[in-house]
Amino acid sequence: MIEKIGENYMRGRLVAITGPMFSGKSSELINRVKLAELQGKDVVCYTPDSRFNKTTPRTSIIKSRSGVEVPAFPLDSKLNGYKIFSAFTEAIRMGFSPPDVIAIDEAQFFYKHELGFAVKEMILHYGVNFIVAGLSRDYTGNPFGAMPRIITMADEVVQLFAVCNKCKSTDATKTVRISEARDKIVLGSNHYNAYCSTCHWEHSKTPDEIKNIDSLKSDCARVSGV
Fold first, then answer.
1. What pLDDT, in 10s, does the model give residues 172-183?
2. Residue 90 CB neighbours (<10 A)
């Protein structure tokens, strides 16, 4: 049963879409946006990514690698939670009804707790449904921006996988930087590969380290009689 919030709004749901680079996160988000629109729902999309902003400063798009896109509003990823909440409620303060769905792509670029705060307030006060996509880990394997918090809050988590760039299995979960860039955040898919856990482990070791580990494994096998 759907719980009423106040007099007019129903409880919203949060769907988190995550996976490594090349796993189709934006495509999954766009598919869900288009499905919601087919159902007659009012959907508003946001992205911190301004690479596709070719027209006016207040418009952008969310675009998949296959070229499918939806219009979006740019949202400054450096804003604190209150200012993000203010951006979400701008149209409401002008007298418009809250949207049925808010979709946010590239959520990893927002600060750790700020996006989660705004999302929670919109769900609690206005019953808005959220679709949020992003990387949960950076190329070093560490938690990335707002996405880990979003995942812990989510009612549904969609874990996507990519094709491993090395062994071509379909269970790649790791993003690996292949360029020599030293900046913490480097935009552009040409700087990264997706690896499965085994290939990622091999990528992180030197040939000598792998040789030593194989030798230890052989010693353990002899001792155990395997």
1. 999 888 766 555
2. 10
